[in-house]
Write a structure and sequence with these properties.
Distance between the termini: 109 Å
Strand order of the largest sheet: 1-8-7-2-3-6-5-4
Radius of gyration: 30 Å
Helix content: 40-55%
Number of strands: 10
Length: about 450
C-alpha cells in the first residue's frame, strides 16, 4: 500500500515536470501566418463554430508545418463543442470513431477533422486497469473521450510542436508549452513524462521517429532515451493501428531515414520482422535501401505510391529465403513460390494488419518474377500484356540493381518492351526443343482392333 502510494505521487509529479501550461500569445507580426494560408474548409468551420458561441482553433500539424515553411497536408480544428453539437451545425458532417470520437465536416472536396477538447484519462500509479477501464495493464489508453478544457487538451497532446492553437479571427497563436520555441530550435519534445506518455500510446514512439525525419528536427534527449526500453509495448497495439502508422512512416517521403532510425532504436522488432535479418545482409540491405530511396523520390516528386509494391519489396527477401528452402526440400519451383508467399504474408499479419486488398498486387509482382527469366517463344510477348507488367518490371530492376540478378536480364527487358516486332523477334533466345512423348503403339493397336471389331458386320 505504501509503495503504491509513493509510486502514484511520483508519477503524478513527474508527469508535469517542465510541462506546466503557461499561456503565451504570439501575434501575427511575429509568426507571420495569415488566415489566407488556412484552407477554405477549416476557415469556414472555425467561423461557424465561433458564431455559434463556441471556441474554435486550427491546431496540430498544420500550424507546425506553416511555421516550418512546409505545405500542410490537411487542417484540423479543435473546439469546446461536443461531437453532437458540431454535427448539428454542419449538414454535411458525420461522427466517426469509438476510442476517439471525431466529426468529419465535408466542404467541397475537403474533409475537415473536428475534435472536442479532451482531458487526460485517469490512470492510477500502478498502471493497473482503473475502475472505468480507461487503460490496460501496460498503461495504454483504451478510451479517450473525456472532454475537458482547452488547457487540459493541450496537456494530452503528444508533442509540443503539435500543441499550438491558431485563431483565424485574430490571427494569433496560443502557445502553452513553448512549442513555438521548440520549432525555432528544431527540437521535438514530448509533452509530460516520456515513459508514461509512451505507455499511454506506444504508437507515439513511431510517430516521434517519423516526425523527426519528416521535419528534419532532432529528438529531445529526454524524449528519445526511453524509446529503446519501451519498444516491446508496440506488441500490445492493435495490428490495424500499427499498419496505419507504418504506412504513414513509409510513405512520408523520408522512409529510408525512418527505417534506419527504427533499427537504431530497436523499434523494428515485431513490426517488420524481415528487417531483423535483411538489414544485416549486404544484398538485402542494398535491395531495401534502393526500394526506399525510390519510394522517397516518388513522394517528393508528387508521384503516386503503391502500398502493395512497397510491401512486396519489404517482404521479398523473406519470401526468397522460404522459396529456396522449399525447393531444397524437393518442392517444384512454382508450388514452392506460392507456398512461400502464403507463409510469409501470414506471418507478417500477426504484427501488421496488411489489408487483403493488397494481396493481388503483391502476389502478381512476386509470381511474375520467374517469368522474366523465360525469354524464348511467345512467353515474353504474353508477359508484356499482363496488367501488372510495369510494377513487376520495376521490381525486377530493383533485383538487378541490388545484385540479386544479373543486370543483363534487366537490360534485355528494358530494350525488349520498347522495341518493334522485328527487333523483339530477333532478341528472343533459342527455345530448347521439348522432348517428344513416345506413343504407346500397343495401346493404339489395341484400340484399332477393338474399333474394327465393333464395326465388323460379322
Amino acid at each position: 500500500m505504501i509503495h503504491k502510494f509513493f509510486q502514484r505521487i511520483f508519477m503524478r509529479n513527474s508527469s508535469t515536470v517542465n510541462t506546466v501550461p503557461v499561456l503565451r500569445t504570439i501575434l501575427r507580426k511575429e509568426h507571420c501566418i495569415s488566415r489566407n494560408q488556412i484552407s477554405p474548409g477549416a476557415l469556414k468551420v472555425t467561423v461557424v463554430l465561433q458564431q455559434a458561441g463556441f471556441s474554435a482553433f486550427v491546431v496540430g500539424g498544420a500550424i507546425r508545418d506553416l511555421l516550418l515553411g512546409l505545405e500542410p497536408k490537411d487542417f484540423d480544428v479543435a473546439t469546446n463543442a461536443t461531437p453532437e453539437e458540431v454535427r448539428a451545425l454542419f449538414r454535411r458532417s458525420r461522427i466517426i470513431g469509438r476510442r476517439f470520437r471525431l466529426v468529419h465536416v465535408t466542404y467541397g472536396s475537403e474533409i475537415v477533422e473536428v475534435s472536442t477538447f479532451r482531458a487526460n484519462s485517469p490512470i492510477n500509479g500502478s498502471m493497473e486497469i482503473n475502475a472505468e477501464s480507461h487503460a490496460d495493464q501496460h498503461g495504454r489508453l483504451l478510451q479517450d473521450n473525456i472532454f475537458g478544457s482547452q488547457e487540459e487538451d493541450v496537456m494530452r497532446r503528444d508533442f509540443t510542436v503539435n500543441a499550438l492553437f491558431y485563431n483565424p479571427a485574430t490571427e494569433e497563436i496560443l502557445d502553452y508549452l513553448n512549442g513555438y520555441e521548440d520549432i525555432e530550435a528544431k527540437r521535438l519534445r514530448i509533452i509530460g513524462e516520456p515513459t508514461q506518455r509512451y505507455r499511454e500510446d506506444p504508437v507515439r514512439m513511431l510517430r516521434a521517429v517519423r516526425l523527426a525525419a519528416k521535419l528534419d528536427i532532432q529528438l529531445d534527449e529526454e524524449t528519445a532515451v526511453p524509446i529503446g526500453d519501451l519498444a516491446p509495448l508496440l506488441q500490445n497495439v492493435p495490428a490495424a493501428r500499427l499498419f496505419d502508422e507504418m504506412l504513414k512512416l513509409l510513405m512520408s517521403g523520408h522512409s529510408l531515414a525512418c527505417v534506419l532510425d527504427l533499427r537504431m532504436r530497436g523499434l523494428h522488432h515485431g513490426l517488420l520482422p524481415m528487417l531483423d535479418v535483411i538489414l544485416e545482409q549486404p544484398l538485402g540491405e542494398r535491395f531495401i535501401t534502393l526500394a526506399l530511396e525510390n519510394t522517397d523520390k516518388r513522394v517528393q516528386e508528387g508521384k503516386p505510391i503503391s502500398p502493395g509494391f512497397l510491401f512486396a519489396t519489404l517482404l521479398w527477401h523473406e519470401v526468397l529465403a522460404a522459396w529456396n528452402k522449399h525447393q531444397a526440400a524437393g518442392e517444384k519451383p512454382m508450388p514452392a513460390l506460392h507456398l512461400s508467399m502464403v507463409e510469409i504474408l501470414t506471418l507478417q499479419r500477426q504484427q501488421l494488419a496488411l489489408p487483403r486488398r493488397l494481396d493481388s498486387i503483391i502476389y502478381d509482382i512476386w509470381t511474375l518474377q520467374p517469368r522474366f527469366l523465360m525469354r524464348a517463344g511467345h512467353k515474353p510477348f504474353r508477359l508484356l500484356e499482363h496488367p501488372r507488367f510495369r510494377a513487376a518490371y520495376d521490381f525486377l530492376m530493383l533485383r538487378c540493381e541490388s545484385g540479386e540478378l544479373d543486370m543483363e536480364v534487366g537490360q534485355w527487358w528494358k530494350i525488349f518492351q520498347h522495341a518493334d516486332t522485328a527487333t523483339r523477334e530477333a532478341m528472343l533466345l533459342k527455345e530448347t526443343a521439348p522432348k517428344r512423348r513416345k506413343r504407346n503403339r500397343r495401346r493404339k493397336s489395341a484400340g484399332t482392333t477393338d474399333h474394327k471389331k465393333a464395326t465388323s458386320p460379322i
